[in-house]
Amino acid sequence: MDLAPEQLQYLTIPDILREAISIPKQSPKTFYLITLTLIFPLSFAILAHSLFTHPLLAQLQAYPQVDPSQTRHEWTLLLLFQFFYLIFLFAFSLLSTAAVVFTVASLYTSKPVSFSSTMSAIPKVFKRLFVTYLWVALLMMFYNFVFLAFLVLLIIAVDTQNALLLFVSGVVIFLLFLVVHVYITALWHLASVVSVLEPVHGFAAMKKSYELLKGKTRYAGALVFIYLAFCLVIGGVFGSVVVHGGNEYGVFARIVVGGFLVGVLVIVNLVGLLVQSVFYYVCKSCHRQGIDKTALHDHLGGYLGEYVPLKSSVQMENFEI
């Protein structure tokens, strides 16, 4: 990012996207390795997940009570697969975020960048992101509880033909999904960057993210919505062609389309992580919160076990008689 900190606040959504896309050019080898080792497995798992669960679900639906022992076996396999899938998804999502945010910040402070230094910093960064994610998970649990409550009201409204209840519950569900869900996602993404680049994490990072989003909420919502829309379209096409398209498409066509869609999702996920890093600096600039590159450089060095020099004011205070 070659722009002055005070100019970042004026970036539009196309400007943010262009800025994010240009970042890997500064260290192509590092981003190539991060993409290959972290983002590609994550993207492949997201799409390939339905390939493994669809046959199990089809069997359970086709023969629900033919053989109880076989049914229990299928359910056990499905639940085990879902459990390990969620663990894998969670781990690689946090690892990818840690790697990209750390690398972008290192480039921003002109700190030497390499894949090995990024991987060395990940363990400490991961711990901070994990704590922040736990707080986000609590917030999402509350959101899901409210969403399910209104979903039940919607079903009751349909059964009782209550027009007013149907309208109110429908509007609330729409707003919860389109507005609240998108806002929580934006809050989470920005809190993840804050957890890496500032000496706060967990609830404090969420609070800082909430403050930074003020004035840029529309931008954040638009960027998250664009990302989710791309993921939805990619997942929909993958499901219709690769997973359920066996009768209409040949094996070769499904392999080609599947490989292409995995590649597209890899790009979308990489750009998404880069965008959330750039958006952090945009929000800081919007709130006139200057970024001390020297302090940030030292903070990043702390993840690598480097010596962090004391500020002169602190040194003078210690020796004051």
Automatic annotation (TrEMBL):
Signal sequence annotation: none
Coiled-coil ranges per UniProt: none
Keyword Acyltransferase (UniProt): no
Highest taxon of the lineage: Eukaryota
Transmembrane stretches, start-end: 31-52, 83-108, 129-158, 164-197, 218-243, 255-283
Keyword Transmembrane helix: yes
UniProt keyword terms in alphabetical order: Membrane, Transmembrane, Transmembrane helix
This protein's name: Polyadenylate-binding protein 1-B-binding protein
